Amino acid sequence: MKKKLLCLVFAALTGFAFHTLSIPHGLLLGSMVGSAAIAISLDHAINLKFGIEYVQVVLGTATGLLMSNWNGFMTPHIVPSIVLMLICLLGQYLVSWVWLCKICKWDQKDAVLATYPGALAAVLDLVRSENTGNRVVVVHLTRLVLITCTLSLMIPSITNQPDITQPFTLQSHAKGLAILLTLCILTGLIMRRLAVPAPFMISAILLTSFLASPLELNAFTVPDWCLDVTTIILGVIIGSKVKGMKISEISKHAGAGLVSVSLMLLFAAAVALIFANVVGVPPLQLWLAHLPGAIELVALIGYSNGLNVAFILLHHLVRMIVLHFTPAILAQSRDYRTRPKR
């Protein structure tokens, strides 16, 4: 227990050090680095019971609250843009899969999971359930770092974003939060039985989006300290996945992941540039809507740059629903086909 606590404190301090140095998303990247350093040097992974469930509920609730105050987003370009996004996702997946499977000679299972353009929480669920290799996690870590650095360099105005947080008043929101969180957990448990990846995140996003107004939570925002704890836990969970891997092995897989993710981002950028005028939105906004993941980062970037956040988040929500429920449907179909006939 003491060893786990010391490792957790070290990862958190590394995260705060990165944050103090003004490194983009330093709290997340720093805790990942600290946790990975412990996992590699001491061959010890920090196992946080219910950690991933906590991360999913908090991030899902925060995202759902952002999407609960939509106004004026039902414009004629929404439907064609979402269809374009699904086609773009397929193209991103194919170019990345070809690189890993045909050029890097990965087996098909790892290549499929490594190119899965879902949320990190969902990816971790898939990696855990499929018992796949650590190189899949390394590719997704590369994706997170590359997207973070790319957006931070392209749109540095994130440091000047308006203060959108509001004070946490427990008395006025306690009842509504208790009802919402209970429903999110119960729904997430049902989804998990149906083999839906990141079930608590999906349930939290959907339920919060629809119930924020009836439960009088429109003025509520997730406290900063809660998001900071979530960020550290997620970084620790991700960094611990490199346990048992050598630096040379990580570098090798990171190189493959860098090319793989770069191909996905470049494909999405090309689609945004070509079809921006057809859809009727700025290319940058369309590109952010078509990115393969990092929904929380994209939301912050959108706010800081004055873009249509509702438009962007709607695309990411559709992407998450499609990608998260597809494995569950396939798993149920496979179980049905393999079930012995009476």
From TrEMBL:
One short Pfam name that applies is AbrB
On whether Transmembrane helix is a keyword of this UniProt record, the answer is: yes
Q: Can you tell me where the transmembrane regions are? A: 78-100, 136-158, 170-191, 198-216, 222-242, 254-279, 291-314
Top-level taxon of origin: Bacteria
Provide GO CC annotations from the record.
membrane
InterPro entries associated with the record: AbrB_fam (IPR007820)
Protein keywords: Membrane, Transmembrane, Transmembrane helix
* One of the GO BP terms on file: regulation of gene expression
**Presence of the UniProt keyword Lipid metabolism in the record:** no
* Name this protein carries in UniProt: Membrane protein AbrB duplication
- Provide the organism lineage as a comma list: Bacteria, Pseudomonadati, Pseudomonadota, Gammaproteobacteria, Pseudomonadales
